């Protein structure tokens, strides 16, 4: 079995410190582009669980993940999220992580809103981002998204739910929840789409979406593929919800390995 070693980093930015982790595969080619993971709206490095190590091992390359500002072990966010926060991520924290770790070519992997960030990163770095893998990414705000958020808001009002969130975000947990629900349910965010960024994409895409995803219909992966200028492979996973890499990990990993063979990265 390939040995996987982890390293943790603290990266200084103008807004605060970013926590990052790298899973190193000792058998990875020095020329292989690493995966860079962007987490979901309630996520953190630790909430990727076994997936980064599985990805590093099965794909024989390094994996990097980081806590966005305000999440996990990174510094508290200094304010509210701007409505442009999805596009802004590639120009702010992601840029700092890539620079600090000396990463040039990379493959972006994003879950949920992190999928949107990964797609924006590919548009921002067309020469460096060699491909994008999205897991349950949203491409616009639809009614199913709103309904899922309202159900989540009600669930988080129950006893013990905030304590569970605090396991991963500490005293930043209330901000994390408000950043998610407050932003996505805001009238100012209602017209948000990824359309402009998708039309700029030239790199290959691998788009996963569960047909039971409570935050987005299967219109999202098809819209992403239709608007992207580069080649896109869509995998709609039967019986799968919002976390494909946890609910159907082996299916996702096998598809990534096959996709990489054609990527040549």
UniProtKB/TrEMBL annotation:
Family matches, as Pfam families: Abhydrolase_1
Annotated InterPro entries: AB_hydrolase_1, AB_hydrolase_fold, AB_hydrolase_sf
AB hydrolase-1 domain: residues covered: 34-168
Position of the signal peptide: none
PANTHER family linked: MONOACYLGLYCEROL LIPASE (PTHR43798)
The protein's name in its UniProt record: Pimeloyl-ACP methyl ester carboxylesterase
Species of provenance: Solimonas aquatica
